[in-house]
Write a structure and sequence with these properties.
Elements: E1 2-7, H1 17-31, E2 37-39, H2 48-60, E3 65-69, H3 78-85, E4 90-94, H4 108-121, E5 126-130, H5 136-156, E6 159-163, H6 177-184, E7 187-191, H7 193-200, H8 205-217, H9 230-247, E8 251-254, H10 259-263, H11 269-277, E9 281-283, H12 288-299, E10 305-313, E11 317-322, E12 341-344, E13 351-357, E14 363-372, E15 375-386, E16 395-400, H13 406-415, E17 421-426, H14 430-440, E18 443-445
Parallel strand pairs: 1-2, 1-3, 3-4, 4-5, 6-7, 6-8, 8-9, 13-16, 15-18
Antiparallel strand pairs: 10-11, 10-17, 11-16, 12-13, 14-15, 14-17, 15-16
């Protein structure tokens, strides 16, 4: 990411200029340590003309978002111009008062509050940060805010692919290219299963052998699978990688059954695991919104995503299961009792799935983006993985949810039309996901 820093002032200095300079010196030190690019436009921003010039420099520098500070309170008349010049991707950062003396030193929070109220009434989305530059909690809030505001325009520029259609009977996953474009800005690129099957067969033996060697280098044990089975799995992986590159895809959903294992002779789940482990957003069963859920998680910095069934639940746990397609980073270590191994599908015993347990004692966020009643919705809750109560073939995980009746949560999600796939990511990200949803005009669903 590349972030523009807009420091707003006045033609005539106000409040405590020395305190303002102290805040800016702290800002320079703090920005030197952030994990993204920083661009500071040249003009000293004190009026309409200098704000417009600074925004133009930010556009020319291709910044993903702007962070707006008022170390001492700026002119509230600049807020409508900011809305015109930069109608989204704004972070308002307010800094505290000088902790000594009886005189008001900055009114920075008042200034940010004024801008926030004005921007909201103008329909411009933003995120808020409050605190002194250089403090660890403030740095974390800034990183979250920057990720949230920059994720939306990146999503709006994205392209999702669909191979085939949704799996039979899963009509709630049907993709609408016009609603995707209208509500999320996402472009849908459709490819037939026959084209994908042709692509699988289109690689020479040398290319396939080199990729099989890359698979073996992962060190995954073979469980009922022969070395000869890996060639077809590599062909699936190479075909998907080529499709992503040639079509410029940011996410991909594939109708993985019933045709593929019957025609190709294998399931594509080993290929899915490899792509998800590399950080690519991929979904099984033609679940386009599931793939976009994974993409949103990636744009927000949530890490690898696992698209799972909600298999069963009780009052405080959810069983997270699917047919062997979780990224390696979310699974128990390779070589451990519950670690990943290349195996056969639980149903027709064809290769190649990756059986594994989700890592234990791992904080996770379980969430989903979907469309119902003509509007996109998002639900997210946080949990911690615990040892599964029994062995399940495929990907097996059990998540304990604190402070929520999972039975009531499930009912609420069903009443809101949520499909049966959920996305699992490591870490506690509900607040970040809900902030993104608010900015994107997506309805947030919570248990009643």
């Amino acid at each position: 990411m590349n972030i523009g820093i807009l420091v707003l002032g006045r033609r005539r200095p106000g409040f405590d200029p020395e305190w303002g300079e102290h805040v800016l010196s702290r800002l320079d030190c703090a920005l030197a340590a952030v994990p993204f690019g920083v661009f500071r436009p040249a003009p000293r921003i004190v009026d309409d003309a200098t704000l417009a010039a600074a925004c133009e420099e930010c556009r020319n520098a291709a910044v993903d978002a702007v962070v707006v500070l008022q170390p001492t309170m700026s002119d509230g008349n600049l807020a409508p111009l900011l809305a015109q010049q930069w109608p989204d991707r704004i972070v308002l950062w307010a800094t505290p008062e000088k902790p000594t003396g009886a005189m008001i030193s900055s009114c920075s929070l008042v200034g940010a509050h004024t801008f926030a109220s004005t921007l909201r009434q103008l329909g411009v989305g933003f995120e808020l940060v409050y605190g002194m530059p250089g403090e660890p909690d403030v740095a974390a809030d800034l990183l979250r805010a920057v990720r949230v505001v920059s994720a939306l325009p990146r999503l709006r520029r994205s392209r999702v692919g669909l191979v085939g259609y949704h799996a039979p009977g899963f009509i709630d996953m049907a993709a609408d290219p016009f609603e995707l474009r209208r509500q999320l800005g996402v472009s849908l690129r459709h490819t037939g299963l026959r084209e994908f099957q042709d692509a699988i067969e289109g690689f020479d033996a040398g290319t396939v052998a080199a990729d099989v060697a890359a698979v073996r280098a992962l060190g995954l044990p073979l469980d009922g699978v022969d070395e000869s089975d890996l060639a077809t799995a590599s062909r699936c992986y190479l075909a998907l990688k080529t499709m992503v590159a040639e079509l410029g895809l940011d996410a991909l959903a594939v109708r993985c059954w019933p045709e593929l294992p019957n025609v190709v002779g294998q399931w594509p789940y080993l290929a899915f695991v490899r792509l998800a482990t590399e950080g690519f957003s991929i979904a099984c069963e033609g679940d386009v919104d599931g793939a976009l859920s994974c993409l949103v998680a990636g744009l927000l910095g949530c890490g690898q995503s696992y698209l799972s069934d909600w298999l069963e639940h009780d009052r405080d746990t959810v069983t997270l299961w699917h047919a062997g397609s979780a990224p390696l980073g979310l699974c128990e270590p390779v070589g451990s009792p519950g670690g990943p191994r290349i195996s056969r599908h639980f149903n027709n015993r064809k290769p190649a799935v990756v059986e594994a347990n989700l890592r234990g004692d791992m904080p996770v966020t379980v969430f989903r983006l979907w469309r119902c009643d003509g509007r996109y919705r998002l639900a997210a809750f946080e949990a911690r993985t615990v040892p599964p109560r029994r062995h399940l073939m495929g990907t097996n995980g059990l998540a304990r949810v604190e402070g929520t009746d999972v039975r009531r949560l499930f009912e609420t999600l069903c009443y809101e039309g949520m499909p049966h796939h959920v996305v699992v990511v490591e870490g506690l990200h509900r607040d970040t996901l809900e902030r993104f949803a608010r900015l994107a005009g997506i309805a947030v669903v919570r248990a009643s």
